[in-house]
Amino acid sequence: MRIFDPHIHMTSRTTDDYERMAAAGVRALVEPAFWLGQPRTNAGSFTDYFDALIGWEPFRAAQFGIRHHCAIGLNPKEANDPRCREVLGLLPRYLARDGVVAVGELGYDSMTPDEDEVFAAQLALAVAHELPALVHTPHRDKQRGTLRTLDVVKESGIDPAYVVVDHLNEVTVGSVAGSGCWMGFSIYPGTKMSPDRMVALLREYGPERMLVNSAADWGRSDPLLTLATGHAMLAAGFTEDDVDRVLWRNPVDFYGQSGRLDLSGTHEQAADFAGNTLARGGS
C-alpha cells in the first residue's frame, strides 16, 4: 500500500514517526503551515518557520525515503493577531519556491472580520501564483463555517478544483460535495473522523475528490491512521485500486496542479552519517 499524506505537521513529530511512516508505506506528504501552539510575537518567527518547511523538513524526510512538500500561508487562528498581519507581505517570495505546492492552511477559526480579510487575500495569492489552496474549516460551528468558506471561495474566482476544504465530517461533507471543491478528512483518535466513519462516507459519496489525511500535530494524533483507513476500506470490500486512488492518486492529482510535485526517489533511504540518521554540522 502506497500512501501520500496530504496534510500532516511533521515539525511537531519525531524522527521515530518518519521511520514508522516509511515502514507503513508513506512515500510522500504535504505539510501545511499552522499555529505554533502559542502566539508568535513577530513576523520573523514565521520567516524561520517557513524556511524550515522548505529546507530542514524535506531533508529530514528524505532520510527515510519520504518526499516532503509544503503549503505556505497565514493560519486562521493567527489572522486575528495584528502582529502577524505583515506575514501576508512575505508570502509571495515563499509561494514562488520549489516544493511549495499550495497556499495553506487558510480559512476560519472564529469567523471574524479579520479572518474574512486574510482568507480572501490568500485566495487571491493562490490565484496569482496558480497554486491550489488548502482550507481549514473551524472546530466550532463547523457547518456555518463550511458554508461561509464556500461563499468566499466562490467570490474569489478561484477554480474550485484548486481548493480542498478540509476537516470535514458527516454534517459538512454534503455541502462541499456539490461545490466542485475537493473534500478533505482528518482521521484522528477520538475526534474529527475515524477509519470506520471514513469508510461509510466513501460508500455514500464515492472516492472522487476525496483526500484522507492524518493531520498529525502537537496534540494526541497518529500519523499511521491513513494506513488504518486503507485497511478499513479493504475490510469493507473496497478494492486495492480504490485504496490506491484515495491514499495516493487523489493527493497526487490535487497537488500535481501546482506543477511542482516531485515524487522521484521515494522510498530510497539515505545512508547513515557516522552512525547518525541525520547529517550534523555545517553552517
TrEMBL record:
The record, for Pfam families, names: TatD_DNase
Q: What's the source species for this entry?
A: Actinacidiphila paucisporea
Keywords (A to Z) from UniProt? Hydrolase, Metal-binding
* Record protein name field: Hydrolase TatD
Give the record's family classification: Belongs to the metallo-dependent hydrolases superfamily.
GO function terms (MF aspect): hydrolase activity, acting on ester bonds; metal ion binding
- PANTHER family (alphabetical): HYDROLASE TATD
